[in-house]
Design goal:
Two copies of one chain form a homodimer.
Chain A lengths: L1 H14 L7 H5 L4 H7 L5 E3 L5 E6 L4 E6 L5 H12 L7 E6 L3 E5 L27 E3 L9 E5 L2 E5 L4 E3 L5 E4 L12 E5 L13 E7 L2 H4 L18 E8 L11 E4 L4 H11 L22 E3 L3
Antiparallel strand pairs in A: 1-14, 2-3, 2-13, 3-12, 4-5, 4-13, 5-11, 6-7, 7-8, 8-9, 10-11, 10-12, 14-15
EC number (chains A, B): 5.2.1.8
Enzyme class (chains A, B): isomerase
Organism (chains A, B): Asticcacaulis benevestitus DSM 16100 = ATCC BAA-896
Chain lengths: 299, 299
Amino acid sequence: MIKRLLLTGTAALLLMGAAPITQQGSATQASPQEVLDAAPASAWTDVQSDDLVIMTLADGSKVSYQLASAFAPVHVANIRQLVRSGYFDGASIIRVQDAYVVQWGRADDDKTEAKGINATPPAEYEFAAPGAFKALPYRDAYAEKVGHIKSWPVASDGKTNWLIHCYGMIGVARDVAPDTGSGTQLYTVIGHAPRHLDRNLAVVGRVVGGMEFLTNRPRGTEELGFYKDDSQRIRIVSTKMASDLPMAERPAYQVMDSDSQSFSAWVKARANRSGAFFVRSAGAVDICNAPAPIRLKPM
Amino acid sequence: MIKRLLLTGTAALLLMGAAPITQQGSATQASPQEVLDAAPASAWTDVQSDDLVIMTLADGSKVSYQLASAFAPVHVANIRQLVRSGYFDGASIIRVQDAYVVQWGRADDDKTEAKGINATPPAEYEFAAPGAFKALPYRDAYAEKVGHIKSWPVASDGKTNWLIHCYGMIGVARDVAPDTGSGTQLYTVIGHAPRHLDRNLAVVGRVVGGMEFLTNRPRGTEELGFYKDDSQRIRIVSTKMASDLPMAERPAYQVMDSDSQSFSAWVKARANRSGAFFVRSAGAVDICNAPAPIRLKPM
């Protein structure tokens, strides 16, 4: 049982599950989990119900995702319209490529019309900061500066900013450059952050619940993880905006405010792991290993 | 179909599948796939059969992994002994934690004895370089220098070196520090590289085939992704050293030699994507987005 308990330790620190608190850990510095547990309610921001999408799959599992309305407003408006018009109801997970992406929408041979959207939105790959930039004090291979704006992972070259393709982030599949996608096919990252996609596709959201019901699917056997035929595709039975559900049925997600003191302490704790398990602390953390903590609002 | 083809492009570049070659791509610079296709046989190194383990799961799927014998020889000797003594035959996948690790071996309540191993191996978390260090010319959040030694991802602080917890790398589960694990429970990374584990656990290998048969499993419902009970665990029916199989049955994997010109060209192409799909090239690549290409030896 010891081995299980102690492996529990490291994993909990990464995924924000319950971490066993050790004498040594308490004696040195707070663990990321201890920081979360001590954070005041004011450090958590509610995910707005009009930015929250609940997708129900054929096996009854539910995947919830938050739209990045402050960063890609035209694409987000398209996605809200597609959801409300029922475009995704009866669509499918059409592609699962290991270490890369899960993609859903209408397969290319499905001629369902997307009604009422902007078919050729602006790229929205880069933007002027819509809020304070909370930079990480660590190096990044791809950008001069990385950090968070309104609790979203952002990179910057000092002139422009862009959302980062971290695990669980959602982007809009598109045709050949320079046109962007309309939002009829979406993908989420299921491997090491494919940062080469940054600024090449519109990043429009992130999975906030049920990610494991996208990642546990059989990988597609066709080129690039597309499923061979419709019988292999996992059907999406319904997709709803949380704001269109009765109050009692709306999941209440909260994201830690990246401008809060608690968030700064949490990032520091992620970069400097302590406790009995750790022989060495890294002293740094990669932007995609510091995703803003997300939780269901305590009752 | 266009959307499928063009998304194919980006994914192929990441995972080394077949990439559609565009006029523009050809006109500018070789894509990573073009570099691989053009690489001479001399750029590829055979995975030694005594470093290659083939694990067969209850559903008939096979996962192959390469042992890092040049970096963690005592742990690797333990793993070979555990494989040859049948320790893993009838063991299970005991833990699948989304975005983190898949772990296999004997569950903690299984008292099967591990015979003939070094029960307390040295940590082997760091080492003097056993070969030339081919550094990446890009920044890294965690280390002064990252690159490859003998086609393995390595970080260095100028004094010591260590293997990096990239996607698909295999480590040895252990109890509380400072003792290391014996090799009776192994894990592989299935999310964004958890670099905070570097130098805290012994990294002993990497998955070279069948990774998708580990990642497509239901996530465990207990704390940290452990399965609740044995009925949920995926059984390992057999684990064999390739060197103990008849020649005809040995999978012939090859890894691109990180000291080859082809590898340097491939890393450059990964950092500077071209072709019709890309609006912008990142101009850099993270160490865990530049894993040495692996293939089955052409017949």
